[in-house]
Fold:
Amino acid sequence: MFRKMLSRLYQCLPLVRELNQIKAMLLAQHQYANATQLIRLVDFDLQQHPRFSDPKRLLRYQTQVCSQGHEDGIIHEIFRRIGCGQRIFAEVGVGNGNENNTAFLLSQGWNGFWVDANPAFTKTLAQRSDLPAECLRFHVGFIFKENAAAIFAKLGVPQELDLLSLDIDQNTYYLWEALADYRARVVVVEYNAVLPADVDWKVNYAAERVWSGSQNMGASLKAYENLGRRLGYALVGCDFAGNNAFFVREDLVGDHFASPFTAENHYEPPRFTARRYHPNAILDRAPAPPAQPAE
Structure:
């Protein structure tokens, strides 16, 4: 109690107050400078780079609406190329519901399924009268490779769906492996960008093991490339921040994406601070537009 009183008195000293104000001002200037550099890099400099200017690459189509990084724009571009199908998604690891890979699709009239151990997203949904119950079914609870298929079956996830997004940090690789019978047209997974592009590595599986916050997590991009190929998918790109990898079912790839479909070609290193946004929120839900054929 006495220490708290002393701390409050100390913070009220004119010199300390001024120093805190200067510190806050410098921090704001630093954040502004970083944001300005990011905008210049992504919007201007990269457009002149041979790798990023290739129209078949997905990086030039990045947009951040509700995703953690710029996944929204990449997902939108993938479906623009291959067609949207029935507009059904399933996502595991949805956070609070306002920031994930499918919230933007939900606002565009897609229907789907959410799974997360944290019930925070249910509060977000409860506050939204424009999201009818039939547009989204969900499960609150831990998901492992041993129970993943049973949870999807209970929810009624169709085996033929459009987008499957998986992000449970530690065991994402094993979750995709366990859901092999679900033939999504597009799959998005979080990869461990710390590892070089040519290294096939994944954590040892333990059902209830959770991410410690260290770099000992998940799986390398090469491991996902090999798993995807085994399941019938091609690696078509990664986001600029080095968070997510994007796979398209092999029968849909055609000539739409940049080959070769390898980790060496599509790897992006960790740039986890490369993000910009207003506070996240699910946009108002719009009626689903008529289905458009692929290009």
